[in-house]
Amino acid sequence: MKRRATELTVSDHAVLRYLEREHGIDVEAIRSHLAGPALRAAELGAIAVQVEHIKLVIRAVEPGRAVVVTTLGRSVPATNSRRLQETDEGTP
């Protein structure tokens, strides 16, 4: 007999698509809104930029990508730190 899963994690991608399709959130408009200041900051050599009440951390993990969003005054959550470290080391 198969065991039933006792826990399930819904991916960020699934949540994003749900918000986009069920609630009409324009993800591309949000992406453009964030990309403008991030691009200007990256061109000036910045490693982070404040957009409203969040901070975008610009990393060279993937050229031209802001890969971490954190609330100002808070550190990057452990799950994101671990993911960034793994990506930096070349592991998935």
Largest beta sheet: strand ordering:
1-2-3
The number of E-state strands comes to 3
Low-confidence stretches: 78-92
Write down the Rg. 16 Å
* Structural class category: alpha+beta
| H/E topology pattern | HHEEEH
In round numbers, the mean pLDDT is: 76
Overall shape: it is: elongated
Helix content: 40-55%
Terminal CA distance reads 33 Å
Count of separate structural domains: 1
Beta-strand residue percentage:
15-25%
Query: Number of DSSP helices?
Result: 3
Q: What do these coordinates show?
A:
The protein is of the alpha+beta class and 92 residues long. The chain has one domain. It has helices at residues 12-23, 27-43, 78-88; strands at residues 48-51, 54-59, 65-71. Strands 1-2-3 form a three-stranded antiparallel β-sheet, with helices on one face. The longest helix has 17 residues, at 27-43. The chain starts with 11 loop residues before the first helix and ends with a helix.
Care to give the gist of this entry?
The protein is of the alpha+beta class and 92 residues long. Helix content is 43%, strand content 18%.
